[in-house]
Amino acid sequence: MNVSTPVELFPDAIRYVDLQVDVVKYPDGTVEVVDEDELEADVTDGHVPRALADRALDVAERLASGLRK
């Protein structure tokens, strides 16, 4: 599952921001949050605010937790 900002609809475009972090459920049932390092790089580079990154990580962890049940 890809964590992103909500989709925004415009008359001539659709926009969302991929926040890098993803949740993966493998065939054996293992669930993992991946690509946190890519999100952190975007924070360091000033592309993603820290508050948004923290929210994305929280969402990813909650998704992962739900998939582990």
Descriptive account of the structure:
- The chain is α+β, with helices and mostly antiparallel strands and 69 residues long.
- The chain has one domain (2-68).
- 41% of the residues lie in helices and 30% in strands.
- The chain has 2 helices and 5 strands, in the order E-E-E-E-E-H-H.
- The protein has helices at 36-44, 50-68; strands spanning 2-4, 8-10, 13-15, 18-25, 31-34.
- The protein has a 3-stranded antiparallel β-sheet. Strands 2-3 form a two-stranded antiparallel sheet.
- A hairpin with a 2-residue loop joins strand 2 (8-10) and strand 3.
- The two termini are 16 Å apart.
- The model has no long low-confidence stretch (mean pLDDT 96).
Short synopsis of the structure:
This protein is of the alpha+beta class. It is built from two helices and five strands; from the N terminus they run βββββαα. The longest helix has 19 residues, at 50-68.
